[in-house]
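Worked example 2:
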Amino acid sequence: MTKNFVGLSFAFLLLIESAFAQIYRLDDSSSAQGRVEARYVTNEFGAPLAETNSADFMFLKFGLVQYRLATSAYKGQKAKIYYVIPLFIEGLQNPRALTVRWKGNRLLADGTGHAGERQLVWSGIVTEDWMQDEMDLEMQVELAQLRLREGQRFGFESYFEIEINE
């Protein structure tokens, strides 16, 4: 009984703490690239997708993508920054059919996520007006779950959120 009470008490405290968290979308409009094109698009065997008659997966490699996040409004505050992959992506039939992987260069943590997920990439006290880093970014898409119109390109805008507990 005591273990259950302690566990429930801890869960309740976490719920209360998250209820007071404020979440904001971070401005990344000062990042070097507004729209990032994949450098390589291959099938699951590494062959160029355009030269493949049948493939189960599409792999997109973007290389290093630079991000510059406006954090001046949060200086001096304890914060968590999340990388957010939107849930609704045109043409994608199932959120699990998209896997995004990234490796942070200096500040941002490595991670993996799917459509509709937000993944923690940084936690600490905000000390600068701008947080700048690069992420080595790649994606995998299950082609059976992708329905694009003729001539339509696959794409979406991921973004960053900051969570402040007051």
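The chain is about 10% helix and 40% strand. The radius of gyration is 19 Å.
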